[in-house]
Amino acid sequence: MKRALVTGAGGFIGRQCLPHLSARGYEIHGVELEARFAPGLDVEWHSVDLLDSASLSSLVAKLRPSHLLHLAWETTPGDYWQSPMNLTWLSASLGLLADFSVLPGSRIVGVGTCAEYDWGTGVCSEDLTPLRQSSLYGVCKHSLQLVLGKLASARGLSAAWGRIFYLYGPHEHPARVVPYVVQSLLRGEPARCTPGDQIRDFLHVGDVGSALVALLDSDVSGPVNIGSGQPVSLKQLLSLIGRKIGREDLLQFGALPIPPGDPAFVVADVRRLREEVGWQPALDLSRGLDQTIAWWRETLERAGLPPKT
Predict the structure, then answer these.
(1) CATH superfamily of 2-167+202-226
(2) What residues does CATH 3.40.50.720 cover in the chain?
(3) φ and ψ at 137, to 5 degrees?
């Protein structure tokens, strides 16, 4: 039996991993500070503070998982890039890796970020692009990846590192750009945006979950980019949202300045993901946005804030 321990299992990405783990025959153990409910899925939830090292060590020793998918981290929009909580999560994550490494476990997948790369060198490739982090978040994530690689080699473990690029979809924090614009337009309110010239690589969160589970279920080692490989400008993305909602007139491009240090171009080389892991996305950008808009429309209606027509 493949027994997976998933940290952050109820989060934005974590909840999307669960059905794919179930489909691949895993016994799933989800870790969250507050246990969640996953309709239609057999998930055993464990209410554990991941920053409480003693409680987490006890849980790992009790469950003895064969697979570890580590997603939990500080991700509060606007705060996480330079937050000291990155150091706290790095410390907790190192302890988790140490606890897992003494078990007869077989596979670890940690979750990293495109912010580990030097963003000024074009398409980001695992083998070719220099690694230069400008944020504490990127530094701490990359530090964990380095430790994971050395630990796996020393202990004879199989390990991989999924570097996630830009994502969107249901349950995203409402302060992030896609939810902000979708909700604004559905409410008939102006959406203040930057000029939108930034080129990004967007992947629906459902596909991110699918890709991470495919990586976990493979024997591919080392860093693997998790993205679409398709460059799209922020203006193109938001304009498409505007056309789908029928309120492109409410998009105010240039109302906000581009934040200092915001990179002009961040796109993934996804050859390892597609050729070695054997994974392809299920949703293109248009269908992914359709699903996302529908989810936010239903969410607003449930909250008693019906979209304006």
Answers:
(1) NAD(P)-binding Rossmann-like Domain (3.40.50.720)
(2) 2-167+202-226
(3) -55, -50
Asked whether 197 and 235 are in contact (CB, 8 A), the reply is yes
Cα 82 to Cα 133, 134, 248, 293, 302, distances in angstroms: 11, 9, 34, 31, 35
Q: What are phi and psi of 26, to 5 degrees?
A: -85, 145
- Digit-coded pLDDT (tens) for 160-199: 999 999 999 999 999 999 999 999 999 999 999 999 999 9
Whole-number Å distance between alpha carbons of 7 and 22? 16
pLDDT band per the 50, 70, 90 thresholds, residue 37:
low
Distance between CA atoms of 57 and 45, rounded to whole angstroms?
16
Look at residue 142 in the predicted model and tell me its pLDDT.
98
The CATH architecture one would assign to domain 169-201+230-265+283-302 is Alpha-Beta Complex (3.90)
- Between the alpha carbon of residue 298 and those of residues 13, 15, 186, 219, 260, the distances in Å are 20, 19, 11, 39, 35
Read off the pTM.
0.96
User: Where residue 123 falls among pLDDT bands split at 50, 70, 90?
Assistant: very high
Check pLDDT > 60 for residue 301.
yes
Nearest-angstrom CA–CA distance, 201 and 181: 18
Residue 55: exposure state from Cβ atoms within 10 A (0-12, 13-18, ≥19): middle
The kind and range of the H/E element at 108 are strand 107-113
CA distance 259 to 278: 36
